Amino acid sequence: MTGPGVVPADVLPLTYNDPRRGLLYGVAMSDAGVSNPDPLSRHYLPRDISDRVAFRLTKFLRLLADTFFAKRYGHRAVILETVAGVPGMVGGMLRHMRSLRRMEPDHGWIHTLLEEAENERMHLMTFVKIAQPNWFERLLILVAQGVFFFSFLLLYIVSSRTAHRLVGYFEEEAVYSYTEYLHEIDRGSQPNVPAPQIAIDYWNLPADARLRDVVIAVRADEAGHRDVNHGFADVLAGRQQTATALNGEPGSEHGQPASDSRAP
Predict the structure, then answer these.
(1) 3-state SS assignment for residue 3
(2) Least enclosed by CB within 10 Å: which of 106, 109, 119, 180?
(3) Beta strands in the chain (DSSP E)
């Protein structure tokens, strides 16, 4: 049995650029991998108040990040990746408790969310080696992670659908930011240093891989997170995921009843 929220036992685990991830919610995502020529091509148009809240909050936080970090992309990645590892862990934890409480299967959501959290943690471990954060940035990490953890926990309890949509928009911005990072590397504005060994081991990169290769791999991961979280939000809203960049219009409805997005 396949369809929204149902994952066959032989599908898990998958990497984030595996097109079979579409089975999580019945939508193909074959353009989410490293070979995607335009990873910016996917954008989910806000369709209701929940989407608009998530979208506007994302744009506000993006403005803050742009103001604080400017073009210090390595340091930006360190701070933001320590926050990016929170949603998957919070969502996975709450859905785990929900599965125990209701004594029913979770159809792969827990595994996927925890895998996302681990993937974001490895992004952080990689950029720590590259950017070498100072004491102030480490303090900022503690504050940002603490505030975001409790804020996202509350949001997920109140509306898990909005929480997943928020993460989807976060990841859209992450894809855009890493694309900007690539452009700076290609222009020579950012040094294309050798890839740290932890990145070579994690993504199976060539031994002579450079920072540019790492950024491409990380961007592909973020594109996967984007599609998965927008898909989860659509499942909770009872509709199919929409990738709107090609036609600029929302897709069709699933035709199935919306589930309770307030229940994690």
Answers:
(1) strand
(2) 180
(3) none
pLDDT at site 63: 80
- Do the Cβ atoms of 110 and 98 come closer than 8 Å? no
pLDDT, position 239? 64
* SS3 at position 6: strand
Give pLDDT < 70 ranges for the chain: 1-41, 66, 68-71, 239-264
Single pTM value for the model = 0.75
Cα distances (Å, whole numbers) of residue 135 to 138, 139, 142, 239: 5, 6, 11, 45
pLDDT at position 111 is 92
pLDDT at 42: 78
Total of domains in the chain = 1
Query: Could you tell me the residue range of the domain that residue 172 belongs to?
Result: 47-237
pLDDT the model gives residue 145: 86
Measured CA distances, 262 to 105, 162, 228, 237 (Å) = 19, 9, 19, 10
CATH of the domain at 54: 1.20.1260.140
Q: Measuring CA to CA, which residue among 7, 24, 8 is closest to residue 224?
A: 24
Query: Whose structure tokens read 């031994």?
Result: 207
Residue for token digits 């403005």? 63
pLDDT of amino acid 144: 83
Q: Are 210 and 235 in contact (CB under 8 A)?
A: no
Tell me the CA distances in angstroms from 178 to 72, 113, 171, one per residue in order.
12, 22, 10
Residue 74 lies in a domain: yes
